[in-house]
Design goal:
With 120 residues, the chain is mainly alpha-helical. The chain has one domain (4-119): Up-down Bundle (Four Helix Bundle (Hemerythrin (Met), subunit A)), CATH 1.20.120.160. Helix content is 73%, strand content 0%. It contains five helices and no strands. The chain starts with 12 loop residues before the first helix and ends with a helix.
Length: 120
């Protein structure tokens, strides 16, 4: 089990349980995350730059399941908040900060998960 305490920002326990330790399936989910989520985060940043905050909701929704399955708790909390606030047009002033934090989490986790795939 990985945790923030040991410097890792993800936890593969859920995936290992679901796929009963099948590393190929776990690696497929990690690969999907690496392909898709940074793109969603980039699109979120573009929405913030254009002040199109209502468009954050579908992007956060798309990223949510990958982030959740990989046990990226810090990022998941921010993604859920972005999804909720954007959908309900609440707390719009804090969305740019949340998107910035999601970018920082994504960058860190990206490097860590890439290393997981390289070791496999």
């Amino acid at each position: 089990m990985q945790s923030v305490a040991n410097g890792l920002r993800y936890d593969l326990s859920y995936l290992n349980q679901v796929f009963q330790g099948n590393n190929e399936m776990v690696n497929n989910i990690i690969s999907l995350f690496l392909q898709q989520v940074p793109m969603y985060v980039k699109e979120m940043e573009e929405c913030v730059q254009k002040n199109d905050l209502i468009s954050l909701h579908p992007l956060a929704h798309k990223a949510k399941s990958s982030v959740s399955m990989l046990g990226i708790r810090d990022m998941e909390t921010d993604i859920l908040q972005i999804e909720h606030d954007s959908k309900h047009l609440r707390n719009l002033d804090r969305l740019p900060t949340l998107v910035g934090r999601v970018r920082a989490h994504c960058d860190l986790v990206y490097v860590q998960l890439k290393m997981v795939l390289e070791r496999s």
